[in-house]
Amino acid sequence: MQTTTDTLAFNSGYAEVNGLNMYYEVYGQGKPIVLIHGGGSTIQSNFAKLIPLLAKNRQVIAMELQAHGRTSDRDADSSFEQDADDVAALLKNLGIDKADFLGFSNGGTTTLQIAIRHPELVDKMILGSALAKRNGVPEWFWDFMKQATLENMPIQLQEAYKQVAPDTGGLQVMHDRDAKRMVDFKDIPDEQLKAIKGPALVIIGDKDVITPEHAIELSRKLVSAELAIIPGGHGAYIGEITTITPDFTDSDMVVPMIEKFLNKKAK
């Protein structure tokens, strides 16, 4: 289905993916870049500000993962490995053999799993506030996740879900799946990280939930990585909905840095 929003045309649809009815959107033309959202999010809540800028020069492919937004749930816990397999299946369905990837937050962790499990799909990857080790966030984070309730979920994310979900009753399911996945999170082994060969750009905010130490460590574990620590909170550098302030402008985003990284020729 073709839709136009704010003069930006895109195609959207659903694909049968590993037992899910997965929603996706495709914008623009050019080399594909795949956007993978974070926990509790939709395409728009993470990437509404970013997509129009990237789509000027690229084909942008974004999807909603298990139980998120317009995508159905399956009778199984969420996992980053399963999300990676779901994205890989969607890209096969769409005829995409290789792409660049930009994953934010949980989506960054999923992007790492795609590079580990489906390396043939990945050219370059941008890892926005991605978690690879449990020590990459403050200790309070894990206690918070164990006690997580829907009432504590950012209201902007709740509203974004309700705007698009066919059944808003799924909000609790999405919340619980995401919380359990974080409680159960296990470190990605160093040998798996070191086996990732493609170029990577690791980005966090200086007031991010991800610690600078973790971002530095991750960038050093990857064979070919650059690191950027940007002023701001978790996702402010891409205009994520919970971080936007009234004085936000497109120039607050790191799009020039992303495009420079993506366009850099291999040595």
Automatic annotation (TrEMBL):
Instruction: Give GO MF terms, alphabetically.
Output: hydrolase activity
**Keyword Hydrolase assigned:** yes
- Keyword set, alphabetical order: Hydrolase
The yes or no answer to whether the keyword Flavoprotein is present is: no
Gene3D superfamilies from the UniProt entry:
alpha/beta hydrolase
Q: Where is the AB hydrolase-1 domain?
A: 31-142
The name on file for this protein is Alpha/beta fold hydrolase
